[in-house]
Design brief:
Chains A, B: It is an enzyme of class 1 (oxidoreductase). 2 copies of one chain form a homodimer. Chain A is about 45% helix and about 10% strand. With about 425 residues, chain A is of the alpha/beta class. Chain A folds into 2 domains: about 170 residues, Rossmann fold (3-Layer(aba) Sandwich); about 220 residues, Dehydroquinate synthase-like, alpha domain (Up-down Bundle), CATH 1.20.1090. Chain A is globular and about 55 Å long.
């Protein structure tokens, strides 16, 4: 018997220039006026912009004490999360958590909030089989997520992504309780993103929208019992709407925001696109490009893009995701030709296939030309396929069954895009 | 200085055929597994369909005790709400409230939940100047709203509408805490709506979408302090999206659902349209047609439509709202010609002005031909205008300032639509 029900949930949202000035008031509302101490989580790069201090001062002006943890790691690991948790346990108790930064700061805040409120250790809650897959039994502290990059949608989602260092695997913690209580999206905070961060994070928006828009339809899954329902329930009428609108916004603003970071209107449209895509994929799910991104990011050798911390090699998340997108959408086309045609059109294409539209956009915003430029070769394909196959939770959201051979075709088709 | 920020909030949503079978599980999730006793609020007409009993049995099958209050009044009054509150206080304590019915049952449940959890009396919380305008200080019990009509959007909104009998005025209680925690929209529950209920409630959907789509743009209001923000913040990019999609859904299903109530696909599309419009207007607001509906419903003489309780005269809410819509949108056209053109197009029009598209739809679904058929004449216009002017909260959401003369023109243009 097939499924007939879909679910939808979202954080409260405050959107617009200046929205981040009011967070002290918002925290008090969420805490029924009883908040005294707030933990603010950010990362060193974002802290250097001065924005987290400004947010902290605004919260203090409402009579609250703020403790700042500014050592979130870009691409969190179990070790970096443990450090944040230990800091918070030591500096607590807190009444609320505020995250200011990209997906890494927001995800770090989710893990900290989880372990401040629920018993056990971090690995207990990490998705099985890597971790214990434990369900958080108690509600978390109110979490206000304030994104400073326009990409991850972490402010809307129920997942915290991390690398487990000893196992060299990227995995996550996923539960409805991890969804932030309130997303405060202030386009003014995104103006300082370097061009490559805007380009890479923007590709994350694009893939959130395209993957949720092309995900397996919710009613094509087997019927579930209520306790089996997950936040990511497949494409559905609501997620579709967010994805479509996000693609339209990207078509009008992505190139502009990358080429002129001071274009306030383009920044605002990108912030809206990121929020919309997050609200969509946060309920539908993502699939092939995201599954392929895990081993690409995890197996990086010495690639160091401009605009990111240069202390170690990194393939930024959005860049890792979009690298296989043209080949993945070529592979997935026949599952829903009309959707692929419509997506290309929403992105401003004029009749070309979706992969062509994607490659042109990647090139226009200055992304690397393919996996080869990131340091991968044909000899890495088997290894990358093995890594992608581990992301069964994501692959299950694809509109067709995805085999080892299919993934190899996708990776081989992603070495050189132009 | 003008506003730059908009806010958005929504209940969790479970949508689809069979969704109402799982409410016992949902209640336990919302109560962290600690729920024991649930109050189910419904009205006699809906109770007669057997659906509330079925929902109650489903909840009981999860080990919960359910007490049913089946005496909600269609169009609640202060007296009917007081009766429900007294019942609930007497039969409590409860861990959660479930409302099964139309907007009246859901609004009754909101008032009951408010007074089960917050001190004081009903009139303390009613909007000033009619009531005390008190702010609920404590969170309410989890409220699961299960609409059985496709119209009101009460499952998404922060307002409870009531008639204050002694003052002969329709007013409300409005606060973010009144928004249901979870909306369970099961199209199977809407199949029993009589044709006139489908037509009238459908017009409520239509006006929610059209009024939020044409409301004053959020950034055209004066800038607010955080404590001044209200759930209804004017048209904005998110509310726009819900409104547009709702209009498209109505274009494809409204006539079908009225003319063949057993058309399951049309019922599902109408349920989706109602949900979408509720999620939109629940954040943007409504204006002229809703303001005019209050005195139309309040001053009814002897109109008794098919499909509604026949113990007293009634102008159903959606019918009252749409009666002035063609004239109101003719009056408002020049404030945003492009939006009016687009709305007419989304509703399936082929170039005609929006009022023409509206009148045709009203006629096609069997609505009365105007205020005259409801028993009003030109001599009632002054009285109706006086009543509409009292709805300043709604009129402030209109895209232009609305004068006494403007309202008189709207009412006079609504006596006979064909």
């Amino acid at each position: 018997m097939l499924e007939s029900v879909f679910t939808y949930a979202a954080p409260g949202l405050k959107f617009g220039r200046g929205a981040s000035d009011e967070i002290g008031w918002d925290v008090q509302q969420l805490c029924r006026g009883e908040a005294r101490r707030v933990l603010l989580v950010t990362d060193p790069g974002v802290a250097a912009t001065g924005q987290p201090d400004r947010v902290a001062d605004g919260i203090r002006s409402r009579g609250l004490e703020v403790v700042v943890f500014a050592r979130s790691r870009v691409e969190p690991t179990d070790a970096s999360l443990e450090e944040a948790i230990a800091f918070a346990r030591d500096a607590g108790p807190f009444d609320a958590v505020v995250a200011v930064g990209g997906g890494s700061s927001i995800d770090t805040a989710k893990a900290v909030d989880l372990l401040l409120t629920n018993e056990g250790g971090l690995m207990d809650y990490v998705n099985a089989p890597v971790g214990g897959g434990r369900t958080p039994e108690r509600p978390l502290l109110p979490l206000v997520a304030v994104p400073t990059t326009t990409g991850t949608g972490a402010e809307s989602t129920t997942i915290c992504v991390l690398d487990v260092l000893a196992l060299k695997v990227k995995t996550g913690i996923s539960h409805a309780r991890l969804r932030p209580t309130l997303a405060v999206v202030d386009p003014d905070l995104t103006m300082t993103q370097p061009a490559m961060v805007t380009a890479s994070a923007g590709m994350d928006i694009l893939c959130h929208a395209l993957e949720s828009w092309t995900a397996r339809w919710f009613a094509d899954f087997d019927a579930k019992q209520p306790e089996q329902r997950v936040p990511y329930c497949g494409a559905n009428p609501i997620a579709d709407m967010w994805a479509e609108k996000s693609l339209s916004l990207l078509a009008g603003s992505f190139r502009r925001a990358v080429h002129d970071g001071s274009d306030a209107e383009a920044r605002e449209q990108m912030a809206l696109a990121a929020t919309f895509a997050g609200l969509g994929f946060g309920n539908a799910g993502v699939h092939v490009p995201h599954a392929c991104a895990y081993p690409i990011a995890g197996r990086v050798r010495d690639y160091r893009p401009a605009g990111y911390p240069d202390d170690e090699p990194i393939v930024p998340h959005g860049m890792a995701v979009v690298m296989t997108a043209p080949a993945a959408f070529a592979f997935l086309h026949d599952a829903a030709p009309e959707r692929h045609r419509r997506a290309a059109e929403l992105l401003g294409g004029t009749g070309e296939p979706l992969p062509t539209v994607l490659r042109r956009l990647m090139r226009d915003v200055g992304l690397p030309s393919g996996l080869a430029e990131l340091g991968f070769g044909a000899g890495d394909v088997d290894d990358l396929v093995e890594g992608a196959l581990k992301q069964q939770r994501l692959l299950a959201t694809a509109p067709v069954d995805v085999t080892e051979d299919d993934l190899a075709t996708v990776f081989r088709g992603s070495l050189e895009h132009w």
